[in-house]
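Memo to structure team: turn this sequence into C-alpha cells by end of day. - J.P.
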Amino acid sequence: MAELPIIVVGAGQAGLQVAESLRRGGYDGSLALIGNEKILPYQRPPLSKQYLSEGMLEDRLLFRSSEYYEKKDIELVLGQHVSALDTSARSLIVDGKTRPYGKLALATGASARPLSVSGSEHEGVCYLRSVDDAKYIRGRLSADPQRVVAIGGGFIGLEVAGSARELGHSVTVIEAQERLMARVVSPLVSEYFRKVYRSRGVDIVLNVAVNRIERSTDGSLIVVLADTRTIPADLVVVGIGSSPHTELAETAGLHCDNGIVVDEFAQTSDPYVVAAGDCTMHKNSRLGIFHRLESVQNAVDQAKIAAMTLLGNQKPYDQVPWFWSDQLGAKLQMAGRSDGFNRTVMRGSMEDGEFSIFYFDDDVLIGVDSVNRPTDHVVSRKLLAAGANVPDQIIVDLEQNLKTLL
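Reply from structure team:
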C-alpha cells in the first residue's frame, strides 16, 4: 500500500516553507499544498508598501513560478476550501471530497479583525489582507485625490497611510489607544513616528474610538468618532489587528487558545499534526513564553521546525523574534522585545533620523529597535541570540563597531 501523503493546509509564507523544507530535508513522498486563493503562493508584506505606492507587478509578489512546484513534485491545490478535519481518520474534506493524509501541517494564517460598528459594511470601507484587497485599494488610490482614513495605528494602518500620502492623497489615521503601534514598540518609537507622519501632512487622531460610519448625501463617507468629531472620507481602510484561523483545528478537537497551541517543536495536541505561522500560539524556548507572532521571520523559522518534526528530527524553536516595517521612507527594524525593560540606551540620533534604541532589563539586553540603521539591526539579532554583554559606552560611541561584541 502506498504511503499516505503529507498535506500542508495554507499556501502562504509558512505553508510554502514547510513544503520546501520537507523536500530539502530529504522527504520524497507525496506532498500537497492546499490554498484557498487561486493565485500562486505570494508575499504579503509588499501589499501595503511597494504594491500600493510603487505599482509593483503582481508577478513580482510570487514566491516561485509554477515550474518550481512541478520540479519539486509539490502538488498545488489552489482555490479550494478545506471544510473539515478528522484526526481519528486522518482525513480532510477539500471542496467536498475526502483526502487522506499520513501527516498534516496547518498553516492557516489569520484574517483581518472586523470593525464592529454601524456602517462598517458600506462600499469604500475595506481591509488589507489579500492581493484582491490590495488590488481594490490600489484602484481607489489611482483615481483622483482621495480622502483616506486609516482606522488603526498599527503596522498595516500606518503603511497604507504612508503609501496613500506618498501618492498625494489626504490621509487621517485614527488609533483608539494613546499612541501609535502601542502593542509592538516602545513609547519612544511611537512618538518618533507620530512626528514623522505629522511632518509629512498625515493627521493623527489618538485615544479615541470610531463610533460609526455614515454615508453622506454625495455618496462619500463620514467617520464619526466616540467624542462626536466627524472625519470625511472617500476610502476607509481598517487595520485593527487580526484573528488566527483556528476553526478547522478547533472543530477537529485540537487545543486552541488565541491560536492553534503548539509546543517548541511545532507539535499540536495531535501527534500527526503540526502547525506554523500566524495561526499558532507557540512556545519559544529562548523567551520561555507562549505567544502568537505575525511576522515573516516567525512564519519561516517555525515552519522549518514544523518540517523537521514531520521528518522525525525534532529541534526546539528558539529564534530571536524580529520584524521590519517601512514607514514613509523610514525603515523600522525590531529584534527581541521592547516590553519588560527598565532602561534604554540610544545609538545615533532621532533628530538625524538614524538611531537604535537598546532595551535592557538591568544589564541584560532584551531587544533593539532600529530606524534607518540596518547594520545595527543585523548585529543586534546576533547579540541577542548570543546573550552577549553589551556595554553602554560601546553602544553610544558610533566609532565603535558593534560586531566586536560578538
